[in-house]
From TrEMBL:
Lipid-acceptor residues (S-palmitoyl cysteine): C3
InterPro entries attached to this UniProt entry: C-CAP_CF_C-like, CAP/MinC_C, CAP_C_sf, CARP_motif, NDK-like_dom_sf, Tubulin-bd_cofactor_C_dom, XRP2
Biased composition (Polar residues): 27-52
Pfam families documented for this protein: TBCC
Family: Belongs to the NDK family. Belongs to the TBCC family.
SUPFAM superfamilies xref list: C-terminal domain of adenylylcyclase associated protein, Nucleoside diphosphate kinase, NDK
Positions that bind GTP: G123, S124, Q140, Q141, F142, R143
Protein name: Protein XRP2
Organism: Cirrhinus molitorella
Source domain of life: Eukaryota
Coiled-coil positions: none
Length: 376
């Protein structure tokens, strides 16, 4: 980064200026700050008080953005302490770590037997040389290298990558604290774009499986407990119940029990997220399963390709913003979703599969398009 230097004043010093009255100390500028004792008049005073952007920048202590060499402690950062800065965790052992704020990137190095919760990360989360880690993570990119035995409840906008790592297990992100929804927004992450089960093993070993999925009934608190009641985090209202999680709980890559799925799409509006949540609550109450969700922008040509015969009536709706799509699964799900749409979302801009004969095609068309859009 280059530096900017201001030009030195070429004015004569007051002591050498013959125009100044002898003995008149008030005219020499001796009462001005020492660094400006050559400056005279009102213009000089303005120069003395002028501030540049780098002068106004808040001073940052690197120690506030790292946790290093800790053992048997409950530590982390409360909401509002990071505000989008980078963060580093290294050389920690048997610690409970709670980073309850949004950040730019987070690296975790050489940690052993730790429980970690990371609030939304705008960029990447990178674990290196860690073992026996249990964590809850929301991020744009997730990577591990040279790690062993990690249990991860994940929300990741892109395909998670493991490298030279073994004993890796993944589940869907389930977490809530009051500021979490705002932190997702500040980090530029959508709660509907979660590829937690679509893992890419960069260094596969023939005949061995380096990663798998956590049990479907895995309970977050059995992996990452709530903060100690005596810790600094006792005032934060945390919940790991699936129905309170900011990120919808999806089945992901697990095998479905029914061959019938339904595509339900909400077009941009004031209540898109709230409507999607209402649908999820209603459908799961009826026994149906949420497989996957996506939030993506569409162009007119995309609408034609994805929705085909229904495209003409939908094209004008995509101009307001991204669409939110959900795949729901279960016997009779198409008929149930159409009934829910009529009863709960009458007048709302949406698309629902017309019949179970075409619903599988609807699901494939949309989510294949969405994966291409997101580079998956």
């Amino acid at each position: 980064m280059g530096c900017c230097f201001s030009k030195k004043s070429r004015r004569k010093s007051p002591q050498k200026d013959s125009s100044l009255p002898a003995g008149d100390e008030s005219a020499t500028g001796n009462d001005l700050p020492e660094t400006n004792n050559t400056a005279l008049g009102s213009n000089s005073n303005q120069e003395a008080t002028k501030q540049y952007s780098w002068d106004k920048r808040e001073k940052v202590d690197p120690k506030d953005f790292m946790l290093t060499g800790l053992k048997n402690e409950t530590v982390g950062r409360l909401p509002g302490k990071l505000n989008g800065q980078q963060f580093v965790i290294q050389d920690c052992e048997n610690c409970n770590i709670y980073v309850l704020d949004h950040s730019a990137t987070i690296t975790i190095d050489d940690c052993v037997n730790c429980r970690i919760m990371l609030g939304p990360v705008k960029g990447s989360v990178f674990f290196r040389d860690c073992k026996d880690i249990k964590c809850v993570v929301a991020c744009q990119q997730f990577r591990t290298r040279d790690c062993k035995k990690m249990d991860v409840f994940l929300c990741c906008a892109t395909q998670p990558i493991i490298e030279s790592s073994t004993g890796m297990k993944f589940g869907c992100f389930q977490y809530y604290y009051p500021e979490l929804a705002f932190h997702f927004k500040d980090a530029g992450l959508s709660i509907f774009n979660n590829n937690w089960s679509n893992i890419h093993d960069f260094t596969p070993v023939s005949g061995e499986t380096n990663w798998s999925l956590l049990p479907e009934d895995a309970v977050v608190l059995e992996y990452v407990p709530l903060p100690d009641p005596e810790s600094d985090f006792k005032s934060v209202r945390i919940s790991t119940e699936a129905n309170r999680s900011i990120v919808p709980l999806t089945k992901g890559g697990r095998r479905t029990e029914s061959e019938e799925s339904c595509l339900f799409v909400f077009f941009a509006g004031d209540y898109t997220t709230a409507n999607a949540r209402k649908l999820i609550d209603e459908a799961t109450t009826k026994g149906f399963v949420l497989i996957q969700t996506k939030e993506v922008s569409m162009r007119p040509e995309d609408v034609n390709r994805v929705f085909q015969n229904n495209a003409e009536s939908l094209t004008e709706w995509i101009t307001q913003g991204p669409v939110v799509a959900l795949e729901l699964n279960g016997d009779g799900v198409v008929e149930a979703c159409r009934s829910i749409a009529n009863e709960m979302f009458n007048g709302t801009k949406l698309f629902v599969s017309e019949s179970k004969n075409t619903s599988s095609r609807d699901v494939d068309n949309f989510f294949n398009f969405a994966d291409m859009q997101m580079g998956l």
